[in-house]
Amino acid sequence: MTPRGDGSGPDGPSRPAVDPAAVSEAARLLARCRSVLFITGAGMSADSGLPTYRGVGGLYDSGTTEEGLPIEVLLSGQLFARRPEWTWKYLAQIEQACRGASPNRGHEVLALLEGRIPRCVVLTQNVDGFHRRAGSKEVIEIHGDLHQLTCTSCAFRERVVDFSSLSLPPRCPRCAGLVRPAVVLFGEMLPDEAVGRLEREMEAGFDAVFTIGTTSAFPYIAAPVSLARRRRAPTVEINPGESEVSDLVDLRIRAGARDALDAIWRALESGGPG
Question: Could you confirm whether 143 is annotated as catalytic?
Fold first, then answer.
């Protein structure tokens, strides 16, 4: 899940059909690639039934909270430092909304592609951990993982399945310090390790870049598409709506992530494109 509501939504009559010509073109492209970057956003996990913070099906569409503050303030590093119980309250609501959901066919396809393409990297804004659960290993979680907990005072770290057993705000079992999820709150810096990995991957370059279910509103999410364009590497967008990079990509597939990726995989498996 990411702070912005974007990309595809749940099943329903409004889901756009996947253009077979665009699917065939994307499959032919992937069949030739030895390296691909897949950038994923909220639309990827929306197909698993997860709500976004805002937008269609968002948790906080009204823009108001019990505290009378915008959700971006409540989920900010600055407020966490002053009122951690408020931030944890809404982190727990987000985790509760995610509980019981599973990776969808789109996540599975990206994991399958990792076994087919020699260098296949996923850059995700989502914090649900679904890419790894689906089997992808080369994942850059640029906003962290909601289920990875870390102490703010010592080196304690713990991975949890959900927050059901936590007292909020949780305290460290070692030092009684405040514990938080290893996610990037609003106003905080991106994790050095993830940024460094992304920079190294971008320096190496990719044969193609796919952007999936994201508005690409953050500069570091749009940048790989712009760089690929300058290097004349093909770019593809999978998104039923408009984004910041829609006018830059070479190929647009106006459909949800799950449906489009499943169609592309079936086209690859059929042996038609090549």
Answer: yes
> DSSP assignment, residue 128?
S
Say if residues 193 and 142 touch (Cβ distance below 8 Å). Answer: no
What's CA 12's distance to the chain center, in Å? 22
* Residue that terminates a domain, selected from 183, 203, 231: 183
Q: Which two tokens stand for residue 174?
A: 């070692």
Phi, psi angles (nearest 5°) of residue 166: -90, 140
pTM of the model: 0.88
Digit-coded pLDDT (tens) for 149-180: 999 999 999 999 999 999 999 999 999 999 99
Cβ atoms of 209 and 233 within 8 Å: the answer is yes
Q: Do 42 and 73 have their domain in common?
A: no
**Res. 269 pLDDT band, cuts 50 70 90:** very high
One domain for residues 271 and 215: yes
In angstroms, the CA 226 to CA 212 distance is: 15
Q: What percent of the chain has pLDDT over 70?
A: 88
Q: How many CA atoms lie within 13 A of 260 on its CB side?
A: 29
Q: Which helix (H) or strand (E) holds 158?
A: strand 157-159
**What was the pLDDT predicted at 64?**
66
Measure the CA–CA gap between 97 and 161, rounded to whole angstroms. 14
Q: What is the CB neighbour count within 10 angstroms for residue 99? A: 11
